[in-house]
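Homework help board

Subject: predicted structure for assignment chain

Our instructor gave us this sequence and asked us to write out the predicted structure in token form, then describe one feature. I got the tokens but I'm not sure how to describe them. Can anyone check?
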Amino acid sequence: MRFQHNAPIAGARSFVATALLVLLAACGRLIPPNSVSPSPRHAPIAAPSASTSAVALGVTAGPDPARLGLTAASAGSALVAFRQSCPHLVSRPDRSGLTRPADWRPACVAAASWPAADAAGFFTSQFETVTVGNGATYVTGYFEPEIAGSRTHQPGFDVPVYGVPSDLVHAHPGDAPVKSNGQTPFGRYDETGHFVPYYERTAIENGKLAGQGLEIAWAADPIEFFFLQIQGSGRLVAPDGSVIRIGYAADNGQNYTGLGSLMREQGLIGTGPGQYPGSMQGIVQYLRDHPDAGRALMDQNKSWVFFREIDGDGPFGALGVPVRRHVSLAVDPLFVPLGAPVFLSLDRSVANGLWVAQDTGGAIKGANRFDSFWGSGTEAKTIAGGMAGHGSALVLVPRGTLARLGLR
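My token output:
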């Protein structure tokens, strides 16, 4: 998020200052299977809703899905993603309060054998829609970055990519407050048995974990790796052209601080004399032009992400299934059931249509706050980097939900 936390490098901004600050301050995250916490992406752009769930905030009945103009082409990828999300939907409680696991079983049974040619018919026949709150939506974008890396430590590749340390654990129940994702934070138990936050970024970069055999790979550029950590997933391209795909495994439990916000507060970005453009390129250029000051800025982001190597198809989201370009959406599970389809109508037409909630992010908080996934490569980087869409959202829920909620 979460440019996952959450958000997120969730894109590389070469556009307007606002879009970049969204990128560096809020987005989704990518999480591998068997991981339960979202990556520590980005502080929220807007304050999250004070309500604790969609039902507490208030929901209203939306239009029938038949009126959404779905086609086989627009719904086909969503059907595949929904089918992969079904094991989660039918087995885990929905924290939004909108649905129950049993509510999803008929649609999941139908999805297992539904023909792709009639994907639109699946959604129009199996679902109805709700608007959460007023439905007003803000959508950012994230992607899977690609940077130079190596499986072995060799000249020019000196930035360690760490796997999960053995002393990094979730707090035992009662030892730390439960986070909004329902999990206790990551940290460690000190010599006295007290739970404390894990080591900060500065300590880790200064060698706190060196010599423990935790390195799963080595990156060439500390700045590019810094942003890959924010994104939560990426590809390391070795000198021989081979690719190592890495994904979020855990974090150090420390707070994320966005560079864009820090630089704006210090007057470093803008259009004035001596200021740098409020774009991804501008921020990176500042970091390269001022290595000491740039390092000090990056160290203010105390968060650190630990990775695991990912095999197979695509980076993984919070459901433990691959996230897909132009179909996977990072959401706040307090307001959207993880695995549920979501229909977006935005002022950014490229993101309009049917998505599936398959991810979360540290800054993706509140009703109708979403982060859209755009894959990897130059085009994905461009789209994600410029994504700052406003509009409305409908959450698709199994037929019968409206009646059970008293909305019919």
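Reply (TA_rk): Your tokens look well-formed. For the description, you could write something like this. Residues 223 and 240 are 22 Å apart (CA to CA). That's the kind of observation they're looking for.
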